[in-house]
Every structure is written in C-alpha cells, then in structure tokens.
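User: quick one, fold this
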Amino acid sequence: MTDKDVQMPIPRLRLLLLCVSLSSGIASGCLGVPPVPTGSTQAQAVHRSQSSSDDDPYEGWLFRKLTGQKQPAETTAPAQPVAVDPNPAYGSQSLPGSPITESVDAGATADDGPDPKADDGLGPDDFYLENIVKNIKKATGQGPDKAKAQAAFDRGEALFREGKYEDAAGELSTAADRWPESAIEEDALFLLGECYFFTDQYFKAHDAYGRLLVNHTNTRHLDTVMNRTFAIARYWDEQQQKAGTWPITPNLTDKKRPRFDTFGHAIEAYQRIRLHDPTGPLADHAVMAMANGYFVRNQFENAAWNYDLLRKEYPDSEHQFEAHLLGLQAKRRIYQGSHYDGKALEEAEEIANQTLTMFPDKLGEEQKRLLRNQTQIVEEQALRDYAMGQFYEAKRCYGAARYYYKLVIEGFPNSQTAQRAQERIEAIRDKPNEPSNPLRWVTDLLPDEKG
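Assistant:
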C-alpha cells in the first residue's frame, strides 16, 4: 500500500476530527468550547475562572440548575452544618375565632417542608412541567425558603386578623409557595381560601381549598373547608338555576361565579365533599343536592345514579324517603318504551315496593301517587310482552304471537293489556302456527336434509 492510498482529502479529515471532538464532549457531559492546550495562557485563565465561580458558561451552569442537577465535585463547596430553627413552622398563637388551634412542634421533622437531600442528577421526573417550574424558581432565587415563608405567613396572618383580606392573600400565597409540603403551607392555603371566601371570590376560594385538600389530605381544617365548599356549591347551583344560561355562556361580571359552567363547578364542589369526607356530616347532603340538581335539569340518568348512591351508601340519611320517591320518578323517565331496554322499569318497580314497605307512616298523600305508579309500571311491563306478540303476528308467525300473548295474560292478569292480549288470541285462533310457504313446490323437490 502506497502513501497515496492512505491519503485522505482535507475536508473529510477536518470532518472526522470535528466528529471526534463532539463525541468527546458528549461523553464528558459538556458541549461547550473545544479545549485549549493545557499550557497556554488561555487555559490557565479558564481554570482560574472555574475555580472562582460556579457560574461558568462553558460548564452549562444554568442548564444544571434548571434541570435540578448538582454541581460538579470540583466546584461544590463543602457541606456546612445546618442550624436548627428554634421557631416552630407555625406560631403557637391561634386566630381569634379561627379553627386553627394547634401548633407545630419545634422539634418535629416529619413535616418540615421539602426533602433536603441533594439531587443525584438529571432523571425522567425532571422533565415534568411541574418539576421544570420548580427548578426554574430555584435557579432564579424563588425556590423553597422556610425563613421567608414563615415571615410571609406571619405578615399574612396579621393582615387577616385585621380584616385586610386582599393584602393578606398576597402574603399567604407567597408563604404557601416558598415552603411547600409543610404545616406553613397547610395553614397558609387555608387562610388564603378564607380571604377569598370573605371577599366573595368564591371561585378563587374553591381553588385554594382544593389545593389544601390535595396537598394535605388529613388537614385539621377539614370541617371548616367542607362547610365552605358546601356553601359555595349551593350558591352556584341556585344561581345557575335562576340564570338558566348555557354552560358555554361566559360570566364576565360576577366574581362570585366561575367564568363558564357554573353548575358543572357546583357538581365538582359536591363531589369534593363526598370524596374527601365520605363519612362526614355533609356527605349525604352533597349527594342529594347533586341528584336534585340533575333532576330539575332533566338529566334523569345522572339523577337516578345519585339517588341510588344515597339509598345504598347512606342508609341513615334523613333524605332516604325523598331519595326513594324521586329515584322512582327518575327511573320512570329513563325508560323509553317497550322497544328499548327494560332494566330501568324493573328498578323502578323495586324502588316502589321498597318505599311502600319502608315508609308506610310517611307516605300520606304520596301513597296514592305511589300506588298509581305501581299500576303504570305493571302496564308498561305487560306492554313489553304484548309488543312482542304484535311483532310476530305481523310476521304471520301466529304460534310465537300466541306464546307472548299468553305471557301477558299469565304474568299480568289484572292489567288492561291482559284483556287486549286475550282479544288477539281469539282473533288468531284459526291461524296456523307457521306462515304458509308459497314456494313449497320448489322446496319439495329438494332432498330432505334429515334423510
């Protein structure tokens, strides 16, 4: 092989050297400026700048901060002992007349804010939007800070006591953001919701209470939050019923209501009560309110589902009687006729029988209406079999028609439909069971399959 054989064109050689340089940069985790000779003056200047500052653009410091990566070992300062904060996360003094009655133990560490452990590097979770936002806040100096959070909370609490709810809301929002997953955040979110509630900003209050319930499931403010949530839901439900607007109609003037779909937000608030406090004193009220809200808006399937939920899961509820009566009516309205599914009709009959058995002393005038409903249910059930008989009679399948007419007579002997079925049986008494075959002479020529 000659020297000419091993020669490589200059452009290709440069391209190869560039690829090798980029590969080395990727392997080392840095795609910055290519390295300079070790002994050069420029290299010494770069080394001094790296030793004196972590904010070296050639090392991608901003990218590491935004993605939550720790600094390189050679630029990381030795760990310093952390002083113990002698002040509790929330002061021992409680608000006058406020449900906040407990203070956080100064020595407690189980609820002391974000995990102080250092990040091990970039991982899949760092690319979630929530974590990206957290890392951006941390990189810009807006990350978790217990001291600033406590100071903001103290200012917000003082303003809240003075009735300056608008000013208090800003401080409490800052406190919740600067020290998440802590007792400070819990109390800050609660007072933030209270600020919005007392200034009639119900949608913002609903949002603050929701954040509190998500981040602190077993919050000690649960009873108060449930009461506030139920009041907001009832207000939205009633206002939407009075307005009668479409869900997509925007609300641009009333700060007490959401921008869109006020009733949908009321249902969300009711659901929040049932899900976060299913055994609480307002759970059955919320379920009944949902059912009634759907019923008056002619959404009978949703209404029936909630009435069933109340009847089965809250047997001691004071709404049991009304849930039976209205549940029966909802089931009746779901049923669409003899040509459709009859499950709703069967369930309506079951509810009617239960109501007569469980509430004989409470029915009063409703008893007549209930008995009338029972009679109508029986007629509708008889009509289902009668309709099948008519179907086969129209097809001249008189044997099948007589079969279904007999089902009506035997199953519902006291119904008016039974009399009609008897009349049809008499009318087709002489008819053959099967219709005549006009092509019988052709089928007789074909071989018998049984033979």
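User: anything notable?
Assistant: The chain has a mean pLDDT of 79.
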